[in-house]
Amino acid sequence: MKKIKIITMIVLIILITMVSFFGVYTQVQNRMENQVRDYALDMDLGGARYVRLAVNTGSTDIIKDAEGNEVQTEEEMTDEQLAENGYTKETVPNNSAESLTVENYEKTKKIISERLESQGIGEYEISLDDETGTILVQLPEDDFTDNFVSNINTVGKFEMIDADTQEVLMDNGDIKSVNVMYGASSSTSTATTVYLNVEFNKAGSEKLENISNTYVETTDDTNTTEDTNTTDNTTNTEAENTSSEENTTDNTTSSETDSTEEETTTTKEVTLKIDDEEIMTTSFDEPIENGTLQLSIGNATTDTDTLQDNLTQATAIASVLDSGNLPIQYDVETNEYILSDITDTHITYVALAVGIVLLIGLIIFVIRYKVNGLLSAIAFIGLIGLYLLVIRYTNVSVSIQGIVGIIVTILLNYIFINKLLLKIKNGEDSKKLETVKEGIKESYKEFFIRLVPICISIIAFCFVSWTTISSFGMVMFWGVALIALYNYLITATMLKVKAEK
After folding, report:
1. Is there a contact between 486 and 418 (Cβ–Cβ < 8 Å)?
2. Any idea of the CA torsion for 137, 139, 144, 149, to the nearest 10 degrees?
3. Over 90: is that where the pLDDT of 429 sits?
């Protein structure tokens, strides 16, 4: 039974190590893909996207009627068509000279930073040229970078307008906050719908209630009755019973009444726009009294990828609306990806160097502590494999400082295992189970008491907004946690099983 227990644990360690170092590959569309999540690298290691935003210098043509009101046209009109309708065309710059101030440049920079943080992009760099208003944003490259860049210069102008008259009923000044929600579709319990939850302020709530009472679908019932009476010499002749039993009926009287019910449906609708782009046109089924409007984004779906796309789109819209309007219109002047100076080759060299040093240290374990050293060395390799998997699946952004944290964790674990094996070797009888248990207990007590100040610093580093420091803190946090938990469950258990009679 001792051998079976130890062999089982060794097989488990081998499986963890194989998955961590080599991955799990499955066939996807005629190619093999690793299903183990890759590392999240920071900009120093994984490269970065550089986005340069320049102040928009263009202009917009505005068409006005004879009274000076702005007119919306579906197609571009020629000068002759404008004259025929009594319209005039006025060219207005997208950014007025009065808006191009340092204060507005700073405000734009702040709003973009808020949008970055609201979309979960913790690591970024943003700089501003006060003279030209040019903003440079540096972002980590991942699956969501393109989506953010596509919305980075969105002004965020929200409008609810009358679908017929184009009158603006509500705007950004009525919004309190915007967030994303999702839940089961009303039509089916398996599909999920993503919602944009718009909460309005006090004035906006009152407007929304009035609008939801006005812009509804109404149905009028109209009854039309047509009576047609035809009487021609109305005569009711009663048939007399004769021997021949003749029945005579002259001049039949008929009276028919046709009744027709007609329904007339009248719909008043509102159109929701963001940056003059129509999101939807709708009416309200019932009054909205809670000051909250829920807008569905995309269709209800059971597909994970589609749901994620809808969530990403909704999050982008929510961050734009929640952060407020950009006071200045910007154009994306440059959008390019720049590789890191630290290549995969450099990282491979570091990993090989650490691996060689570790291998020498594990050989020393085996020589010095015999079987206990061999079991501890096997468990040590399993800890590294599990540690790397934890870093992947906890979305820790690995920086250069994070790599240093991994190396420090390996060093701390080596010190702990050496202390543990030395306690057992110097015990009364290293082959007895009681001696092993006592050695484990003393090792844990001495090692982790000395580690308390370091643990406090590590936890503090985890909450630092600077990614390079937080990366080191998170890597060390999971490392110390694994040293305590893994060695208790695996390393100590293997040593106790080996010492059992």
Report:
1. no
2. 20
3. no
Domain spans of the chain? 2-41+342-499, 48-58+94-217+268-338
Question: CATH top-level class for 2-41+342-499?
Answer: mainly alpha
DSSP state of 76: P
Rg of the Cα trace of the chain? 38
pTM exceeds 0.90 for this model: no
The two structure tokens encoding residue 101: 């101030």
Q: Please state whether beta strands 48-55 and 330-338 pair in parallel, antiparallel, or not at all (unpaired).
A: antiparallel
- Angle in degrees, CA 278, 295, 271, rounded to 5: 30
Distance between CA 352 and CA 344 in Å, rounded?
Answer: 12
CATH dotted code for 48-58+94-217+268-338: 3.30.1360.200
The beta-carbon contacts of 32-40 under 8 Å, at least 24 apart in sequence, are: 36/389, 36/392, 37/392, 37/393, 38/392, 39/391, 39/392, 39/398, 40/142, 40/392, 40/395, 40/396, 40/397, 40/398
Provide the pLDDT confidence category of residue 349 given band limits of 50, 70 and 90: very high
CB 478 within 8 A of CB 393: no
The DSSP bridge partners found for residue 226 are 258
Split at pLDDT 50, 70, 90, the class of 233 is: very low
3-state secondary structure of 6: helix
pLDDT above 70 for 93: yes
Q: Six-digit token pair at 54?
A: 């320049």
Instruction: Return the higher-pLDDT residue of 89 and 253.
Output: 89
Contact assessment for residue 158 and residue 166, using Cβ atoms and an 8 Å cutoff = no
Query: Whose structure tokens read 């040590």?
Result: 380
Question: CA 53, CA 38: separation in Å to the nearest integer?
Answer: 31
* pLDDT tier for residue 430 given thresholds of 50, 70 and 90: low
Dihedral angle, C-alpha 75, 81, 85, 86, nearest 10 °: 120
